[in-house]
Amino acid sequence: MSDAALPMARIALVGNPNSGKTALFNALTGSRQKVANYAGVTVERKEGQISAPSGRTISVLDLPGTYSLRARSPDEVVTRDAVMGKLAGEDPPDVLVCVADATNLRLVLRLILELKAVGRPMVLALNMYDIAQRQGLRIDLEGLSRDIGCPIVTTVATRKRGIEDLVAQVDGLIAAGTLRAANTWREPDAGQIRDAHREAQRILKANVRAPERPDTFTGKVDSVLLHPVAGLLILLTLLFVMFQAVFTWSKAVGDLMSDGFAGLGAFISAHLPAGLLTSFLTDGVISGVGSVLVFLPQILVLFFFIILLEDFGYMARAAFLMDRIMGGAGLHGRAFIPLLSSFACAIPGIMATRVIDNKRDRLTTIMVAPLMTCSARIPVYTLIISAFIPNRPVLGVLNLPGLVMFGLYAAGILSALGVSFITRRVFWRGAVEPFLMELPAYKLPDPVNVARSLFLRGKIFLTRAGTIIFPIMILVWFLSSFPGAPAGATDPAINYSLAGRIGHFIQPALGPIGFNWQMTVALIPGFAAREVAVAALGTVYAIGAADAAPGALAATLQHHWSIATGLSFLAWYVFAPQCASTFGVVKRETNSWFWPGVMLVYMTSLAYLAAFIVYQVARASGLG
Amino acid sequence: MDPDPVHDMIPETAKVEIAPAGVEGAVRLSEAKPGDRGVIVDVRAERHAGDHGVDVGELQRRLLEFGFVEGARIEVMFEGAIWRDPIAVRVDDMRIGLRRRDAEDVWVLLDAR
Ligand SMILES: Nc1nc2c(ncn2[C@@H]2O[C@H](COP(=O)(O)OP(=O)(O)O)[C@@H](O)[C@H]2O)c(=O)[nH]1
Questions:
Q1: Taking CB atoms and a 6 Å cutoff, what residues make up the pocket around ligand 1?
Q2: Closest by Cα among B43, B64, B69, B46 to B56
Q3: Looking at residue B13, which CATH number applies to its domain?
Q4: A182: in domain
Q5: For an engineered disulfide with A342, which of A139, A221, A272, A349 has Cβ 3.0 to 4.6 Å away?
Q6: Distance from B35 to chain A by nearest Cα, in Å?
């Protein structure tokens, strides 16, 4: 073979969920991966590259896992179209690599029969071969290869075993220029699915002997983890530990980062002449970048747990345990993980709804995700609680501020369930999607794969959220800085800006919920991200970042607001859509401005209603 | 108030037991209890219409794709704490979680206990 560059070839990985496809993709491509979206749809596109020993570069597309080519979700449509070479903007794959869990061949054999009908050259990667061997599963590889009509390579993706063989096989098929047969795939009807199962059964019987030491571990673990009572208790304990980790470990890092950004801002203000540029750098750029980055530790810790539990095989069980509770509110069991992620931040939560097949189920989940108490609300809650809720013990062991915080979380969860219940009952009556889910065998998570997935999640958050949050921060900075204060002005500069004018303009509307003009002005920059409201309140009450001794702002608020106003502000923040980035992401995920619009209206109405009730009741009880 | 909103949407007529012809004593998988074992004898497409996100034919195809086919061995392993739903079943050598309402068209001939 000459050195002349061989044309780049393409392969695509297809397989059932949980077959180790991600691990195999990682083993094949290492760090040479790119994540983006497919053109026009919000399905994650993962691509990587291999350099084959022949010198050929092979691009690998990791397709979403599926049980059949009869696509039902946007993910599965991508898989089907990519396999058939019909996906807009994608070159058809030269070779398909079907990834199968060697210990769980029944369903994938039926998929293989469907893939064969597509007529592209194919290699079967018989993955998890280590587990198969440990179980004493006997597979007649030659016979199986003959029966399904394609070469087989055994792999252990997590140990990188069989990877070279696989690349060699694929490269060989590409070099041989194996001709494509005609695509004879048709959507199978029930009878044809049965026939395919019968054929799969025959192939299994002929080539695979039942394991000598079948997996009993999964059954034993399940008898605890899926136990109706113990299982739920364990799930709740796990969630508790997870939140503990998110809010203590990562909070320390996040706080450190906020301090770092504040320090950087102070450094710049100290060394550059005061003026527009300095203000742009400190209040626009640094606090913009900072407001994205401070969430990263929390999101990473949360995703660490989610990925770990996912790879272990627990997440399917969690969805199973939660299904009836969520189902009562009209949500799908799969909505559990997206809603869980929303406790860190609604943005990764909304992006995670992609696992939900049904469009209506997915939309409902997207719409209620921002009601979960994201970590950006915590600084606001903490500030108001420290200013207005006396630190009193309740029932001996609990204390009042802690109880209020708990109540705010509960209010978020209950309102999310309530809104989805109403959506189901009123708008999308009746239609309840089937819930069918494989409960995979438990596996020891592989540290390298967990690390790689975590890195990927972080990168996706930073790029997708960053591209949305950052411009919005700049816009909000602009609104809060222009026009500048006139000469000789006594009030804080923000008061004269566009944001100040908007705040003054809407203040009368918010009077009935007890908000003064300082609060409404602070709400405008607070639209960039919830926690920005804290800094914005500092600005309107002219408490510079420099003398922000902890508690200074709380003391000021205590002085200027009534308790009723403070409580009303808390109620407002449970529901208010004070996060422009969420709308950006919802727009992106639903491909229309209609749903962000609906979200804005319903959340604002809820917030106003809640704050109104709280304020009026508090005043009536003498807290005005 | 209705105790089980999802289940109550199923019209009574759909709950009439008509065992598959020729297989005496088969029951719907949706009525099986943990510990029940047996063989799938029929997977139909005839449930109540109207209240489902997908039509009965589509549900039948999904069930078939997940391995609920005639002849498969089945065992109910667990059920949820609330309304005993969903159920976790073993189908041949794999485990599937599904809601009882989605398991109505799967008919099982239970082993003698
Ligand atoms: N023992 C073993 N575990 C594996 C192998 N391949 C993947 N796994 C593990 O199986 C689990 C699921 O793998 P993943 O790649 O996430 O599956 P996917 O859903 O198909 O992408 C993870 O815990 C992996 O670490 C393998 O060949 N051997």
A1: A 17-23, 65, 127-128, 130-131, 156-158, 311, 443, 445-446, 449
A2: B46
A3: 2.30.30.90
A4: yes
A5: A349
A6: 12
